Amino acid sequence: MKVIGRFAWPLILSGNPQQLWVRCLPGQAAQVAEQLKAFPEIQFVMTTSGTCDIYADLYPLRGSDVNDLLSNRIPSLPGIKSVESRLVLDSRRVGQSWRLGRLSRAQTEALAAHVVPVNQPALRFMEELTDVEFGTMCELGHNARASAAEVARTLDVSSSSAYRAIQMLLATGAISPRVEVEPSAVGFPLTAIISLQVKPKLIGTVLDRLATHDSARMISMVTGKAPVVFHGVFTGPDDLAEFIIRDIGALPGIQTMDTCVGVTVLRRYWMDRESVFIGEQVEDLLRR
Predict the structure, then answer these.
(1) What tens digit of pLDDT does each residue of 236-250 get?
(2) Residue 177: its pLDDT value, please?
(3) Which of 35, 118, 124, 257 lies at a C-alpha separation of 20 to 30 Å from 137?
(4) Cα–Cα nearest to 210, from 51, 91, 52, 55
(5) Which residue from 71, 110, 93 is spatially nearest to 233, judged by alpha carbons?
């Protein structure tokens, strides 16, 4: 478990995320996945079993050339056979919305009284942040519990300057604290990504229905022949089978489906499996 800061996407991105479905030459998946981790734009990467060998989320950070990444740099990596990219058009649920579901209704309602609403970001562009504010945002990104004194020491500024920067970033919604939990450590070792081909008029209904499921970590509408992608975590194969039969089977308009099961998660929210946050690479790219 780690308390991190979620960046307001308009501040750090130049466009919508892309989902990457990578097929590799035999025996090359692990090597390719490690190479993908060298790109600061890769926010999530996982080796899989199924129709693709690697699934990854690419976030077009400001300063990066997404067309070059998708057309040249990533497809030319040794060991890659093909790359299918799907532009994310709508996200109905994201990772920070996932809950363990271990609290009673009364406990959940009691905690809800203490929720601090997260503001919509008033800042729109990176250029509006001062160097101190930008540096503070990067520090809070990998440790949202950092104190003003800690930030001040890292950035070599006064504690009062660091405190003002922290308060501004939180108040404007430029960054919001979240707890990142490793699902496998709390009883959900199986990760599955399910692509669904849905009748166009029912895409919205399917997205809304899936977004309410307890296993859902990411629900997206994307480009391509399968416009709905469900990313969820499960207690095991039986749990996944029940979800497919009972929940997906009850959805209207489903035409076909394809399931990829995670083998190894190498990076989640820019944190590598060994818990190393790649904030320095992200910061370097955004400063360019």
Answers:
(1) 999 999 999 999 999
(2) 86
(3) 35
(4) 91
(5) 93
